[in-house]
């Protein structure tokens, strides 16, 4: 690798760091003995985690950080005076293969600023993936950004070689998007999402009747929303996410706390640091929608449009709805057991299966994996009949569960003396 290429790589790797939608998961592309690479094992530059817990190392770069758009929240906006660079198709391919052979990575995450027009940029992105797969027989993971406004033909071409594709919605409401990025609109973002969805569904139908059909974006698609750059509430964000999860191919919505990169723009909030706690709460709420059968309207309603930063969303919902508790774990349906703080999906499943054979008590629940310190205020199970949220109050339970934890091994009755 030449010094010039290395310098460009440094610039474009730094430019790509604000995009968090690069979790590689849901695909297995094993080496058949004729190619190079696979999606198992490895160490590298950007670490993401697969659905099964594996750590995937990716080369995470932009094709170029030149961009014709002037989005207020983006470090690569047209009006910013920053170092710029562009890699050629062959340079990206060569860097990817060189890094793989050195065991730095096992996959590629490629995004890009928009130069000339969407089709020109998308064509180069698709060609990189095609060359890696067909010329170099690269079997590693490839995640490509689909450029808003690109034609369906180019999106389909990229989808034939990518494991996952993503289009970042960035801002949940159209009004807020137009305020910070007047040149963009949600329609141009939803169109390539639709192309990807159509391609995946068509591939699934073709595989029902034909044996050898190339996979199309087998790991589905993802997107990202910026948190804290606009006055949009958590309810707005979760409603947008819920709508996106209605698409059968949408695997993940990522949330990125806004980083103050363009402090001179008066349209942006003056944040000293990214809203990381809020970001974490949104991920927890997202988990509730995906695996716990919660609706966005339940997690953040009109009365409480923003998530409680002091407690997790599941506990927050339980404290706002004391009338739903206590839950009898020996009789309640699975869906209601899932809503008990301290009980996860695995524990709820084990409870439903175990209670068919015996009456469960607190000892059984602890062995199953229930966090009794939290759950005891929201359940009954024979000997646990008092001290629940119905017997006390939401305020009392909240105070108990949010009290600072004492360090392990500390005895409150132990006297201490200062001999200094």
From TrEMBL:
Tell me the InterPro entries matching this sequence: Aldolase_TIM, DNA_rSAM_put, Endo/Exo/Phosphatase_dom_1, rSAM, rSAM_sf, RuvA_2-like
List required co-factors: [4Fe-4S] cluster
User: Can you tell which superkingdom this protein's organism belongs to?
Assistant: Bacteria
Limits of the Radical SAM core domain: 63-191
Q: Which keywords does this chain's UniProt record carry? A: Iron, Iron-sulfur, Metal-binding, S-adenosyl-L-methionine
Q: Write out the GO MF terms.
A: catalytic activity; iron-sulfur cluster binding; metal ion binding
Q: What is this protein called?
A: Putative DNA modification/repair radical SAM protein
